[in-house]
Design goal:
single chain, 449 residues, mainly alpha, MgtE N-terminal fold, CBS-domain, Tetracycline Repressor, domain 2, 3 domains, three-stranded mixed sheet, 6% strand, globular
Length: 449
């Protein structure tokens, strides 16, 4: 029902734009929720977006830009004149505004900052990388003092009029602005009005420094069920707060990148349909060429064992079965290890434990697969010796694939490479060549060829 409703609104907005009735189109968009506004707006042509965005209420325009893909929002903002862009940026959250300005031309940034009501909320955020805690945080927060009373704190909240996502946790600082504790809204409400904040705050605060990676922020907030995470500088002065809505965006972004890398491609910088065919090709061709070169090792192995294959032609019948099983076993292991790394179940110090764990799993899987492979080979009319060769090979290949799948993601992490790079197609390609070598080496020994 919701999809049909939005499709109907989109059609009506386009009709209004076709007859050059920008106000009617703007009114229809403004009647929607922010997420729905962004969905409808993103379906419009770029020329329509540029014409319509300045006609919207600046608050609605800000909501739309915040919901859009970052690069698309930056390109759209770059097309707007300063007098149209400044009021929109003024309505954006400081962290979102900093992300937007960080992606447009530097000369435009200075002009926009000069026209804002409070540029100092945004300017410090531009100094940090987008994927760090400093780039993710907002500078819009309320810091309480230790000697304030609960009544004074509540009065300060009323005067501040915070956004919903920033009100549940309130952080306490000392006279030098250093983070001292945290108090939640419930504590303030039920406390005696004359109670000092220092008496009800929790001094054990989970915090991060400005340079911490955004994934670590997301992991901490997920692990400890936090709605807000304070960010401090080198002297532990409170400089910002990372809120849960930003962390959700990070999790979606990181999951999207990981899934694309799992398929053996570079992550896209924008939504799929808005990425040109040429750009998608460029994102994929590098990995395809690398996998092609790596896969050529399989041909090298086959040529090395050419005489053996000619002597026992039936060996070739089982090649797809064996290397396919090995690739699947390796991919299962890498996906498990990568996920365990991502959620903090294991770290680099657990490398040997993980390897031993997967070798035992591989031993059991290999025994099971070897039994099935032996019977399957016999059912195809193979000799007992050939069936034994296949079963021994599949046992060794599964054991090898599990061990390799346990080690490669940890090794990639150790040298600073995203572990998803060694998963999926990369893992399958490596196991193809090595698995084929294992199979034909075992055949040479068992069959005496």
């Amino acid at each position: 029902m919701e999809v049909r409703f939005l499709d109907d609104i989109l059609a009506r907005v386009r009709e209004a734009l076709a007859r050059s009735d920008l106000q009617a189109a703007a009114d229809m968009l403004e009647s929607l929720r922010p997420a729905d506004q962004a969905d409808v707006f993103s379906e419009l042509d770029e020329e329509e977006q540029i014409a319509l965005l300045p006609r919207l209420n600046p608050e609605d325009s800000a909501d739309i830009l915040e919901k859009m893909d970052e690069l698309e929002a930056a390109e759209l903002a770059s097309e707007l004149p300063d007098e149209a862009l400044i009021p929109i940026v003024d309505e954006m959250e400081p962290d979102e505004a900093a992300d937007l300005l960080g992606d447009i031309q530097e000369e435009r940034v200075h002009a926009v900052l000069a026209g804002l009501e409070d540029p100092e909320e945004i300017h410090p955020l531009l100094l940090h990388p987008d994927d760090s805690a400093g780039g993710l945080m907002t500078s819009e927060f309320l810091a309480l003092r230790r000697r304030m009373t609960a009544a004074e704190a509540i009065e300060a909240i009323r005067a501040w009029k915070p956004e919903a996502e920033t009100i549940y946790y309130l952080f306490v600082v000392d006279a030098h602005g250093r983070l001292s504790g945290v108090v939640n809204l419930r504590q303030l409400i039920i406390a005696d009005p004359d109670t000092l904040i220092a008496d009800i705050m929790d001094p054990d605060v989970i915090y991060v420094t400005e340079g911490v990676d955004q994934e670590e922020c997301a992991r901490l907030m997920s692990r400890y069920d936090l709605l807000a995470l304070p960010v401090v500088d080198a002297e532990k002065r409170l400089v910002g707060v990372v809120t849960i809505d930003d962390v959700v965006d990070v999790l979606v972004e990181e999951a999207t990148e990981d899934i694309q890398r799992l398929g053996g491609a570079e992550p896209l910088d924008r939504s799929y349909l808005d990425t040109s065919v040429w750009m998608i090709m460029r994102k994929r061709i590098g990995w395809l060429l690398l996998l092609f070169v790596t896969e050529s090792l399989t041909g090298t192995v086959l040529r090395h064992f050419e005489d053996e294959l000619q002597a026992v032609v039936a060996l070739s019948f089982f090649v797809p079965l064996l290397i396919g099983t090995g690739g699947n076993a390796g991919s299962q292991t890498t996906s498990t290890i990568i996920r365990a790394l991502a959620v903090g179940d294991i770290d680099l110090g657990d490398a040997f434990r993980s390897l031993w764990h997967e070798l035992r799993v591989g031993l059991l899987l290999g025994l099971g697969m070897a039994s099935v492979a032996y019977l399957r080979a016999l059912s195809w009319g193979s000799s007992p010796e050939l069936a034994l060769t296949v079963s021994l090979a599949i046992f060794a290949i599964v054991l090898w694939a599990n061990g390799l799948g346990a080690v490669l993601p940890l090794l990639a992490t150790r040298i600073g490479i995203d572990p998803t790079v060694v998963s999926g197609p990369v893992m399958s390609t490596l196991v193809d060549a090595t698995g084929l070598f294992i199979y034909l080496s075992i055949a040479k020994m068992v069959l005496g060829i």
